[in-house]
Design a protein that fits this description.
By secondary structure, the protein is an alpha/beta fold. It has three domains: about 220 residues, no CATH class; about 30 residues, no CATH class; about 130 residues, von Willebrand factor, type A domain (Rossmann fold, 3-Layer(aba) Sandwich). The chain is built from 14 helices and eleven strands. It has a six-stranded mixed sheet with strand order 8-7-6-9-10-11, sandwiched between helices. The protein is globular. The protein starts with a helix and ends with a helix. The C terminus is likely disordered.
Length: about 450
């Protein structure tokens, strides 16, 4: 089945004006879905399209819809939506929640694209250099929801909370007989009261890339035809994020919301510089520079002081060992989080060749000394015993000052800590019924403010 010429043309046009999205666009597999009445993308990066809508929409409208769907993927809306649902599970069934959250996500994205369009329009460049991406007129707009309290620059979690509080009778939009949030009250995500479905680009039915799962999707899993695995999706998003940042630094300007999304994808969620610094106050190893004084070496200005001895500035530099849980209970997303935190640890100690990485399930399989995350090779897939990894790490020479354990927490722990090493246990999964040993410092990866807006704004 050949791809409609209009979609091919729109994809090439979007790549020409947003070249850093090329990998993301061409990693999507196309699925023809007659009767869909719109476009959609699932969380496994399948792009669903209705041939009738392709004929109806202009190339520019298709470009806008593709760009909109790319924003859903880069913002990882499906993960944020699932995280937010835990705060509203007692107020919404899952279907109604995801329909309303999709609407809030569309408002977040469309607000940024509208600002992007306005900024380019005011740049004074000739039309052929501006790279306009203009949303279709049917797209949801923040201005239509300001009467409910929705403001520019809000995250979708904040918008969702406002829309959820105003259900089921929101006030009417100024100058209109319709009500803001009417789509939110609908079970068909943009359908009219009599069930007729209208094509509405960038205003809902975006697919599971925005959260939930629609009946027209093919589902996920590595054995599912044409879809990517979660790990493959993460790889595509990380590479796209690197392309965005590289393009911004070397070639041209990138919209602020794109840079924000790229940084959130690449940044580890734990401040490892702070965590490691707090654990190495008594570290023996030192290096020149930074924030403390030592009499172990003379100041580099010693010659200026004649017979007076002056201490040198030094900074603690720890020997770090990282024990990575590679057991069968670790999901692809958990392993992706592990890689992100390894990168953060390496950056915190300055990418020195001092970090030992151990792949461990019920036994230690690989021990590597690395200075970049690309050198890490995770091997495993069996049972779980992080005690074996901690014991192996403590026997390394030189002995590590700090042992960091990256795990989902579903493991037995040794009764006693290792000698001479401090242990940091980082839980990288959503499991609630896990415990950490009292002799270790425990950290649970917490959601950023992207998923905590509901806590800040209070109950419905």
């Amino acid at each position: 089945m050949s791809l409609p010429m209009e979609i091919s043309a729109a994809r090439l046009k979007l790549k020409s004006i947003r070249p850093y999205l090329g990998l993301l666009l061409f990693s999507m597999s196309e699925v023809e879905s007659p009767g869909l009445k719109t476009f959609g993308v699932d969380r496994w990066m399948r792009f669903y399209y209705d041939p009738e809508v392709v004929k109806k929409w202009s190339i520019d409208e298709i470009v806008g819809a593709l760009y909109h769907e790319c924003c859903h993927l880069l913002r990882r809306h499906h993960r944020r939506s699932e995280l937010l649902f835990s705060s509203y599970s007692d107020k919404f069934d899952k279907g109604a929640f995801h329909r309303l959250s999709n609407q809030a996500e569309d408002l977040e994205i469309n607000d940024d694209i509208t600002k992007e369009y306005a900024a380019i329009k005011e740049s004074g460049l000739p039309d052929r250099h501006k790279g306009f991406i203009k949303l279709p007129k049917e797209a949801l707009k923040v201005t239509d929801y300001q009467i409910l309290g929705v403001k520019d620059g809000m995250l979708f979690e904040e918008i969702f909370h406002i829309l959820a509080r105003r259900r089921p009778q929101p006030p009417p939009i100024a100058g209109s007989t319709k009500r803001a949030g009417q789509i939110a009250e609908n079970d068909n995500h943009g359908a009219s009261r009599d069930g007729a479905q209208e094509a509405a680009p960038a205003s809902g039915r975006c697919g599971s890339c925005a959260g939930g799962e629609f009946e027209w999707e093919r589902g996920g899993g590595s054995n599912t035809e044409s879809g990517l695995t979660e790990t493959e999706v993460d790889i595509v998003l990380r590479r796209t994020a690197k392309e965005i940042i590289s393009y911004a630094k070397s070639i041209g300007s990138v919209p602020e919301h794109m840079l924000r999304s790229a940084n959130l994808i690449l940044e580890p969620q734990i401040s490892w510089h702070r965590q490691l610094t707090s654990c190495i106050r008594n570290s023996v190893a030192v290096a020149s520079g930074y924030f403390d004084y030592s009499w172990r070496k003379n100041s580099r200005r010693h010659d200026q002081w004649d017979r007076i001895l002056m201490p040198a500035l030094v900074a603690p530099v720890p020997n770090v060992a990282i024990v990575c849980d590679t057991s069968g209970s670790m999901s692809e997303c958990d392993l992706s989080a592990v890689m992100g935190e390894i990168k953060g640890i390496l950056r915190a100690i300055g990418y020195r060749d001092r970090v030992a990485v151990l792949s461990c399930d019920s036994d230690v399989h690989v021990v590597q000394r690395v200075f970049t995350e690309t050198q890490v090779n995770l091997v495993g897939g069996g049972g779980t015993d992080m005690g074996a990894g901690i014991a192996a790490a403590s026997k390394l020479r030189p002995a590590p000052d700090i042992i960091v354990v990256l795990t989902d927490g579903l493991t037995p722990w040794p009764p006693e800590p290792p000698p001479r090493s401090k242990v940091i246990v980082c839980i990288v999964s959503d499991h609630e019924d896990v415990s950490c040993p009292q002799w270790a410092t425990s950290i649970r990866i917490k959601p950023t403010r992207l998923a905590s807006a509901q806590e800040e704004l209070g109950p419905i």
